[in-house]
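Archive maintenance. Older records in this collection stored only the sequence; we are now back-filling the structure field for every entry so that each record is complete. The fields below show one back-filled record exactly as it appears after the update. Entries are processed alphabetically, and EDR1/CTR1/ARMC3-like peptidase-like domain-containing protein is next in the queue.

ARCHIVE ENTRY
Title: EDR1/CTR1/ARMC3-like peptidase-like domain-containing protein
Organism field: Planoprotostelium fungivorum
Length field: 305
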Amino acid sequence: MDILSGCSLYQYELKSDATVLQSLASTLVELLQNNASKIPEEKILAAVAAFSHETTFRAAFCAANGLGCITREMKKGEINRLYQLSQNNGDKVSNRFARDCIEKISANDASIQYWISNSLGYKDVTHSYFYDFGRNDTFFTIEELRRIPSSSDQLETITNNITRTTLDEWNIRWVGNTPQSFYSSLALRVCEHFGGKQEHATYDQNAHLPAVNHLRHQLSSNVMPLMTLNRGSTRHRAMAFKCLCDTVTEENGPECSLVRGRFMGQSHCWNIVRIEGSEFVVDLIHEPGKFYALSSPEATKYKRD
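Back-filled structure field:
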């Protein structure tokens, strides 16, 4: 039975025979692992999606590490095909499966999750391999981004080079501090590192560009370590704040999220922290260290919604 050729997969009728579905799942995993017959990967993914509504198939596919195979393929930049499939509202089965795969992949990769959802939650931890290349319809691996010729016309890619040492150097401790004190002290230091405060009325989202272009020229690359910059917009500050919070490994550590919105057509980012069950936006640029209740007019103004 050649289900990968001939008529459309979505017109093919297959009875819910457990043995057939298990065999089919195993075959597709083998193709993902070693595609000696050179079948186009999108055709294999389409076959997986077509039968993913079958419980037996899904169980067999996962048991054979099918999602692991897909995850490995996505690391090569193939996640874009799954993302396009997830946006196909005309095919609910493929849409659901693609979303399941993306959720599985992004749960282990904060860079992919941030690209897809424009946010990282309290439990979404950034690591040394986290990077952000801004809003884009296409996902790029860090290797692909490094191969792109350096140009001031492109948004810089920022990589996480933050370690716990930074908090130690700044003499900021989670243990022995209140959450308010920790977040406020951290906000002040992040603001200072990236060029200081700016008045709300005269805020310039592009004030950091000379520093970015200088570093771009030094590195001959659009990819630059975050803390190497000495000037930064809300995008750089919010990423640094989140990554620094994530270096705290003590139990019941900081609860900090990272959100990317839009302001004047550009990425505008902010952090939300949770303190005693309540959520607040942290000011990193106008009145650093100040907290705004999430639903307050002050928070809306800061987020520029």
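Update note: The radius of gyration is 23 Å. The longest helix spans residues 66-86.
Entry marked complete.
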